[in-house]
Give the backbone structure.
Amino acid sequence: MRHQNILELIQDNNHAFMNRTGKDFQAEMQHGQKPLITLVSCSDSRVQSEALLGNSFNKIFTVRNIGNQIFSNEASVDYGVLYLKTPILLILGHSDCGAIKTFRAGYNKEPDSIKARLDQLLPALTPTDELNTCINNNINYQVKIALEKYSEKIKKNELLVIGAFYDFKNDYGQGFGKVIIHSVNGEVQG
């Protein structure tokens, strides 16, 4: 698609959005945000918050980066958890994660900015493990970081830390697009 076509697509879709939602929809957001979830997810364009709550406006404070890492955007995660006081911190990994695939393949020739982010996965991942094993190990690692970082809020029942896998490829046979909850406050589910 050409640049001009993409610009027109943005403008057309925004116009349709404005017509569909209108003044009342926007009014509820004019006096601040009140999200229910701080979501740490991958930047992958296939991973969108609509898979969680449908209309996620003013419900999800989204922090995105390669490999759904807390430390890559620590200030933003802190803002959601500590300032906005979301009761849930959701770490969401996903099928076919490009960051994990790059980590597994070796990333020494990547730009320094990408190497720095992938280096943060070294404590959690073994490149020889199967892709979904690595993705799940990263989810568990990010949950562990959150449990340590926000332990006081968790002890006071002010925060629930959830680790989950968005399975848009149906790798686990539970349905295309299933969000599989792995752990809640570090306790493995089902």
